[in-house]
Design a protein that fits this description.
Elements lengths: L5 E7 L4 E6 L5 E5 L2 H5 L3 H6 L4 E6 L5 E7 L11
Parallel strand pairs: 1-4
Antiparallel strand pairs: 1-2, 2-3, 4-5
Length: 81
C-alpha cells in the first residue's frame, strides 16, 4: 500500500459539497453534492481511475471515519471492511 496514491474525502463548508482531494498536491479530483453520492455505487473507485489509491473518509465535522483502498486487491489487510 505504500505505493498507492493517498486521497481524502471531506466536506467543504464554503461550497457545501464533498471533495475528494489528492493528499500531496491538495488538487481537487472530484466533488459530490452528498457524501452518499461519493461513497456508493463505485463513485470513489471511478474517480481514482485504474491506478486506484487509498481514501481517508472524514465525517462532516472533519473527524476521521474510515479508510478505503481501491482496488480492493491492493488492501494489505485481510479485514472485512
Amino acid at each position: 500500500m505504500g505505493n498507492l496514491p493517498k486521497f481524502t474525502l471531506s466536506h467543504n463548508e464554503h461550497r457545501d459539497q464533498w471533495e475528494l482531494r489528492h493528499d500531496n498536491s491538495r488538487r481537487l479530483v472530484e466533488s459530490f453534492e452528498h457524501k452518499a453520492d461519493a461513497t456508493a455505487g463505485g463513485s470513489l473507485s471511478a474517480a481514482l481511475g485504474p491506478k486506484g489509491g487509498s481514501v481517508k473518509i472524514k465525517k462532516m465535522d472533519g473527524v476521521f471515519q474510515e479508510e478505503r483502498t481501491f482496488p480492493r486487491s491492493a488492501d494489505p489487510r485481510s479485514s472485512k471492511g
